[in-house]
Specification:
- There is one protein chain.
- The protein is an alpha/beta fold.
- It has 2 domains: 116 residues, Rossmann fold (3-Layer(aba) Sandwich); 187 residues, 2-Layer Sandwich (Dihydrodipicolinate Reductase, domain 2).
- The mean pLDDT is 94.
């Protein structure tokens, strides 16, 4: 019996997820909701699914087993509550709310209902970052003492004001580099380590945007004494596509990783892991795990297969749950509060 999935929001990410899910033999794309008549007309001709201009009609009339939510962040809450009331599992793009309080409230509700819930923090499913997590779990660095995480893109490269940038142009709709990109970098830290409990020295800066920050930097403090720095810039014309890089230093060595490779420096060899003293390099081609269908990267298929696996097995404790997304929101709100104490955006 197929798992019937509805997609709410058929923009770039919605269509990417539709293409991936449509290749999974366990899945039937039963419905799509979007405000664009043009998009829905095209889908109705090429995908065997029902189309709606209102997500409320989709959940009431189609009653899918699961939803993939790809609307602007400020619209997520209404869709998630509608799914919750009807017992529908949800995969939701990040950030899945624009409030830490609401994020924890929704995490509580979906956990209590036993519904599968997953946030689209795709870095957790990247081949290299998954390998780094395995190395850290194996203790190759010992206790991590310091780290630095950076992310860059050329998302905003010309002046814009508020609604000129669409939903990315205001905090109320989930815009700004902190919600849009720093959330990925924070979630990756949370994937590798315990979430930080305090932030200090947050600076948020304008470059092209007038109402949201384009660059953010901060220091992240952990309960075990580990300290990290974060720097994110979405006005960087030197990068072709979003790039996430993290460097971790521990008692036994250090490593530097991005989506494509990891370099590991060790005080002593670890032959069980095929790691020698000094520098070791592993590329994504050394550690990748094949996926049945490739669009944009293995990680995009892997995260949706994970979601379908959990729906199929009725397992609500997945790899990137609403609770984990809420922990990222805790850090984001601390950054905004700390930034205001430091004089606001500059």
């Amino acid at each position: 019996m197929s798992i019937r999935i509805g997609i709410v929001g058929a923009g770039r990410m919605g269509l990417t997820h539709l293409a991936i899910l449509n290749t999974d033999p366990r899945v039937e794309i039963s419905s799509v909701a979007d405000t664009s008549r043009t998009v829905l007309d095209v889908l109705s001709r090429h995908v065997k699914c029902r189309t709606f201009r209102d997500f409320g009609r989709l959940v009431d009339e189609d009653r899918p087993d699961a939803l993939v939510v790809c609307t602007p962040p400020t619209l997520h809450e209404n869709v998630l509550r509608a799914a919750l009331e009807r017992g529908i599992h949800v995969f939701c793009e990040k950030p899945f709310t624009v409030s830490a309080r609401l994020a924890h409230e929704l995490a509580d509700a979906f956990e209590s209902a036993g519904l599968v819930n997953q946030v689209g923090y795709v870095n957790r499913f990247n081949d290299v970052f998954m390998h780094v997590r395995e190395l850290l779990d194996a203790g190759i660095l010992g206790r991590v003492q310091r780290y630095r995480t950076e992310m860059a893109s050329a998302t905003v490269t010309r002046p814009q004001n508020g609604s000129d940038g669409g939903w990315r142009g205001t905090h109320e709709t989930g815009g700004g580099v902190t919600y849009e990109m720093a959330s990925h970098a924070i979630d990756l830290v949370n994937f590798f380590l315990e979430p930080p409990r305090r932030v200090v020295g947050t600076v948020m800066s304008h470059v092209y945007s007038r109402t949201v920050e384009d660059i953010v930097s901060t220091t992240l403090l952990h309960d075990d004494g580990c300290t990290g720095t974060l720097f994110v810039d979405w006005c960087n014309r030197t990068v072709r596509k979003p790039a996430n890089r993290i460097e971790l230093a521990g008692e036994k060595g250090r490593l530097t990783a991005d989506q494509y490779s990891v370099r590991i420096w060790l005080e002593e060899a670890q032959p069980d892991l095929d790691l020698h003293e000094g520098w070791n390099t592993r590329h994504v081609t050394d550690v990748f795990r094949p996926v049945p269908f490739y669009v944009r990267g293995n990680e995009f298929t892997r995260q949706l297969r994970h979601f379908v696996d959990n729906v199929e097995g009725n397992r609500s404790n997945g790899h990137c749950t609403f609770r984990m997304g809420a922990e990222t929101h805790d850090v984001i709100e601390s950054m905004f509060e700390d930034g205001r104490r430091n004089g606001g955006m500059r």
